[in-house]
Write a structure and sequence with these properties.
about 170 residues; alpha+beta; four-stranded antiparallel sheet; 4 strands
Length: about 170
């Protein structure tokens, strides 16, 4: 006890408060291309390109726990398709880019959004560079992907899952 009669010992701090005070730790242990495919349809079919191509980008995310404590695999899957104005495909790039993360001090109820938002955000600059280099080396102008709003992507996925769950519940 202190002179003024207040208890200043460490036991006075609740264990929950001590756990909440611990800062979140995220460390990228490794990153790699899990799978990649680049099809240069333009070269295969000898197509002529006139005008500006239309480019579509699809993004999917995946995360799973590893056997080691506090380690997770997080993958960002990108499919880029470039087509001419008359809908002829110029190239298709499919890239599955993954990272191994060590994550500590994130509450269980916040782990899923953390894995699906913060981890892909950390990997995105490296994934963007791979897309840039592959499209350039494939004979096209280098494609610089716009930033991806992983928060919005997560929200859309949660809404889609909720609607699918609601539809399943009404059909049963």
């Amino acid at each position: 006890m202190a002179e003024n009669g207040t208890d200043t010992s460490d036991s006075a701090i609740a264990p929950e408060a001590a756990a909440q005070a611990a800062p979140v730790k995220m460390q990228v242990l490794g990153q790699y291309i899990r799978d990649m495919s680049f099809e240069n349809i333009l070269a295969q079919k000898g197509l002529k390109v006139e005008g500006r191509p239309n480019i579509s980008v699809q993004v999917a995310l995946d995360a799973k726990k590893r056997a080691e404590d506090n380690q997770f695999d997080v993958a960002t899957k990108i499919k880029v398709e470039s087509k001419t104005e008359d809908d002829a495909t110029l190239f298709i790039l499919e890239l599955d880019y993954a990272g191994v993360f060590l994550i500590e001090n994130v509450p269980d109820e916040q782990m899923h959004p953390f894995l699906m938002i913060e981890c892909p955000r950390m990997l995105f600059p490296f994934l963007r560079r791979v897309v840039h280099d592959v499209t350039r080396d494939g004979g096209f102008p280098p494609l610089n992907l716009d930033n991806i709003d992983f928060v919005q992507l997560y929200r859309q996925d949660m809404m889609r899952r909720a609607e699918a769950q609601k539809a399943t519940a009404t059909t049963n």
